[in-house]
Amino acid sequence: MDHRARPTGSKLFFGKFENRLLMVLVCACVAVHGADSPKSSNPPEPPQTVSSFTAVAGAHYPFRQNMYRAMQLPNGKIIALSIARDKRQQTMQARYSGDNGHTWSAPEDLFQWPKEAGGFGLIETLIDKDAEIHIFSLCDGNGGGLYPNQEEGTPIRAGNVMDVWDVRSLDGRARWTTPKRIWTGRAGDLLSAIQLRNGRLLLPLNISHGRSWDNRGGGFLDFTYVGDWGVITLYSDDDGDTWQTSNQELVVETPDLYTYGANEPVVLQLRDGRVWMLMRTQRGRFYQSFSEDGARWTSPKPSTLIASDAPAGLLRLQDGSILLFSNACLRYAYGYGARYVLHVAISRDEGKTWRGFREVARDPERNHTIKLDGDYGLAYTFPTLTTDGHVLFSNWVEEGAIRNFRLMDPSWIYETRQNTDFSKGIDDWSVFGSKGVELQADPVNTAAKVLRIRKAELDWPAGAVWNFPIGSKGQLQLKIRLRPGFGGANLGLTDHFSVPWDVEDQFFDVFNIALPASGQVLPNVKLEPGRWYELTFAWDTEARRCRISVDGKFAGLVQDDRWAEGINYLRLRSLSVKPDAGLEIGSVRADVSASWRAVDTADSSSTSLKGAVTGN
């Protein structure tokens, strides 16, 4: 995806032309009205929290290390696994749910980890073809990385230790093997484990090699910097009795000398047998690699999937589609794009094209200042299927002392329309870090609510961000009123989340429409203060332009500032340099059905995906 902005800004083509070329552009522009896609009489509800776990009072370990990891068992029940600690003993526990995660059984002890080995945590799991469970865990070798309160006098391994250990169930999950170390060194978080169709078990992991700018790795690596971390895979062809390590390390260049490179890989086997890997990077997108056997991999290349400095979550759905969880966020100091919102997308063609990129969850603490002593936001998503084909998922990083299980109907991702009139508040908007962005009663119609955006204080920004389903073609209708004393704003349409006060949105939005203090949006269009207008923006990212209408009348065309595969965000940000009266938004309606009409009406076996958002 090309993020290079044109230095001259958006080019405007107006409704009254004297230039024949501009007339051709107008004639070629197709107004997008959308058509009804096949829908059920009751559209699916957004994802809902169905159950929660609370941190154990007085626990001496980070709560995220005790996160419950859920999987669907062959009988349809859901098992959630976690490491519990009583004094210094670490015990693997399970809870069970027979109602798709709404309620859970009391904890059941499965086995004990050897306390003399060190602190265990950050587990990954899989269920193999024989319905047996494999549990992988990191162990700190009594170095205190996971559990600092080891037994007094216990030997401490020197160095930065995070070994990988393995345990598996036997006899229909009735008993467990003795925990054993399968890899020694400094590994990172374990986020993915699968069994290939040929029976091979595959565990990708990121490892630290101790590289630095003074010791970059030799060879070509001396001309660049790939951080301290790289990615390898462990694999077993005998059900986990023995493990082998891939001979190659996958690395990705870093944007600076203080980040760590490729890490936290997730894998999924494609229909053609290849294994697809997505790696977390600090470059604003996932990097990807492919393998025929899980041992030999292609050199990592950038995917077109926008991603913050956070890992992906992948799941194969009942109908064969691929589900992707990600933080499709850019431009923030920590996390290289932040984790304030969690996105979900779906692919029907093995990751080549995607739709959705909807905000599946928002950080409940986003309206508060960030704590600097650890992760924040929503990330590290662990999904599993339920008996009805829905998706139950939890997040490893979720601020506070509560960890939630959320349930989602995948058909919700296929929705092509989204509306807001503020009758239910503004929780579907991101307005944090702003002053003067608030819900108010309409001064004319007091029964209605409006979103007011104004520069309220000199040292505070004012901005609001709204997400809707992605589409290469679509239209957004905005009911807007400028208040007398309005000081100017920028309206952006783009393909990713960034914080409401992002002053670089003018370069990285796909379309930018200036709303000057004078209200002169276009040379032949002026918005008078105190009056409601309906602005319609009909975009086509393939044609690289957006058609603007005011109260149903064509006003002009805006050329994009950069190419993008689709639009799924509205951004509104005050440009006033001093406190002003601002503007009001009465409602917003987005419709991207034009992007998906052919797909939604075609047979499920159709390969026609015109208008889709491309992936690998």
Explained architecture:
- This protein has 616 residues and is mainly beta.
- The protein has two domains: 12-41 and 417-601, Sandwich (Jelly Rolls); 48-414, Neuraminidase (6 Propeller).
- The protein is 4% helix and 41% strand.
- It is built from three helices and 42 strands.
- Strands 1, 27, 29, 30, 32, 37, 38, 39 and 41 form a nine-stranded antiparallel β-sheet that branches. Strands 7, 8, 9, 10 and 11 form a five-stranded antiparallel β-sheet that branches. It has a five-stranded antiparallel β-sheet with strand order 20-21-22-23-42, with no helix packed on it.
Strand and helix layout:
Layout: E1 12-14, H1 20-28, E2 48-54, E3 69-72, E4 78-86, E5 89-97, E6 108-113, E7 120-127, E8 133-139, E9 163-170, E10 175-176, E11 180-183, E12 194-195, E13 201-208, E14 229-236, E15 244-245, E16 263-269, E17 275-280, E18 285-291, E19 301-306, E20 313-316, E21 322-326, E22 341-347, E23 353-362, E24 378-385, E25 391-398, E26 402-408, E27 417-420, E28 429-430, E29 437-441, E30 449-453, E31 463-471, E32 473-482, E33 489-494, H2 505-508, E34 511-515, E35 520-522, E36 525-526, E37 532-540, E38 545-550, E39 553-559, E40 567-574, E41 583-591, H3 593-601, E42 613-614
Antiparallel strand pairs: 1-39, 2-26, 3-4, 4-5, 5-6, 7-8, 8-9, 9-10, 9-11, 12-13, 13-14, 14-15, 16-17, 17-18, 18-19, 20-21, 21-22, 22-23, 23-42, 24-25, 25-26, 27-41, 28-31, 29-30, 30-41, 31-40, 32-37, 32-41, 33-34, 33-40, 35-36, 37-38, 38-39
